[in-house]
Specification:
Layout: H1 3-10, H2 17-28, H3 35-42, H4 51-63, E1 67-71, E2 77-81, E3 89-92, E4 98-100, H5 104-118, E5 126-131, H6 134-139, H7 144-152, E6 157-160
Parallel strand pairs: 3-5
Antiparallel strand pairs: 1-2, 3-4, 5-6
């Protein structure tokens, strides 16, 4: 039983075959997957996996901070397993590769300051930066003008809290 499966069972949640399948698909994924993609891949392991079950499982895993929603350049989002620490997500806008940047403490300090200054209570701190991973920087052949225009439009970095 994996650490995630053990944690799910320890939290009093049922560890169903469908939930195990969603965890397996996410564990094997190298890029964020949409709920439909998770369902399609998951059905190769468990033919009765349904889209509604995938959505419910993702919602539960997100509440438990085991899954992170990643927003794509096309406006759609996918899901990936994440570390338990609060850390920004880096997303390559060409290949979709995702990395977590360790930086929870400075982010926690920023959230504390925002809450103190505004009176807001932040309950879903999502910080996502997008750009080009090292492999795509060398292989993309993107010219500097395209990159400059992309940065001017503000899509080289998006922060949502």
């Amino acid at each position: 039983m994996s650490e995630l499966e053990s944690g799910l069972a320890a939290s009093g949640r049922r560890l169903t075959r469908a939930r195990r399948t969603v965890l397996r698909v996410l564990s094997d994924a190298s890029v964020p997957l949409s709920p439909r993609e998770i369902t399609a891949v998951g059905r190769q392991h468990y033919g009765h996996l349904g889209l509604v079950t995938v959505y419910r499982t993702l919602e539960l895993l997100e509440l438990m901070h085991w899954v992170r929603r990643v927003h794509g350049a096309d406006g759609c989002h996918g899901y990936m397993l994440c570390g338990r620490a609060l850390s920004p997500t880096l997303v390559c806008r060409l290949c979709g590769r995702v990395a977590e940047f360790p930086g929870g403490q400075p982010l926690r300090s920023l959230i504390d300051r925002v809450q103190a200054d505004t009176g807001f209570r932040v309950d879903d701190p999502l910080v996502q930066l997008s750009g080009l991973c090292p492999a795509c920087q060398g292989a993309s052949g993107a010219d500097e003008a395209d990159e400059a225009a992309h940065r001017e439009n503000g899509s080289a970095e998006s922060i949502h809290t």
